[in-house]
Amino acid sequence: MIHAAELKRHADRDLERIACQLGISMHEIRRLVGHGPDAAKLLSWRMAALDVDPAKVARIEPQVSEDLRENCARCHSRRRCLADLARDCSDFDWDQYCPDAATMLALSALPWMTRRTGW
Q1: The overall pTM is greater than 0.70
Q2: 41-49 and 101-108 are packed helices; what angle lies between their axes, rounded to 10 degrees?
Q3: What angle do CA 95, 42, 91 make, to 5 degrees?
Q4: 11-50: b or e for each residue (b if 16 or more CB lie within 10 Å)?
Q5: Which of the 8 DSSP states describes residue 1?
Q6: Whether residue 88 is found in the same domain as residue 109
Q7: pLDDT in tens, 73-116
């Protein structure tokens, strides 16, 4: 029978391996895991507000899509972002605190990355 301490050691080794593969610290990976499965939910809401199609971005630029999700999950302005998204986000300076702002604004300028038809 496996004891809790042994199970924790296995879990820690797995987390260390994953952290190493991602090039981040154990502290950072624990913080990311602590955000839960909805860590990048704000990203999808922000993309929708900008008319950017997440499926197109993932298909055409998979690394950009992954980078966006990681940046959003690591962001320290989640509460501010949520508050801005709850209101009309075009009225706020989200692009000043969002680590994904430049990329998302660039994507929103590309018609083939938006939800607009014809692309």
Answers
A1: no
A2: 40
A3: 40
A4: eeeeeeeebeeeeeeeeebeebeeeeeebbebbeebbebb
A5: -
A6: yes
A7: 888 888 888 888 887 656 568 889 999 999 999 999 999 999 87
Q: Are residues 82 and 45 in the same domain?
A: yes
Same domain flag for 22 and 67: no
Residues 69 and 12 in one domain: no
How far is CA 15 from its chain centroid? 19
The dihedral formed by the CA atoms of 80, 83, 87 and 91, expressed in degrees to the nearest 10: -10
Is 119 contained in some domain?
A: no
- CA–CA gap between residue 21 and residue 70 (Å, rounded): 14
With 0-12 CB in 10 A as exposed, 13-18 as middle and 19+ as buried, what is 60? middle
State the residue range of the domain holding 52.
Answer: 37-113
Q: How many CA atoms lie within 13 A of 59 on its CB side?
A: 8
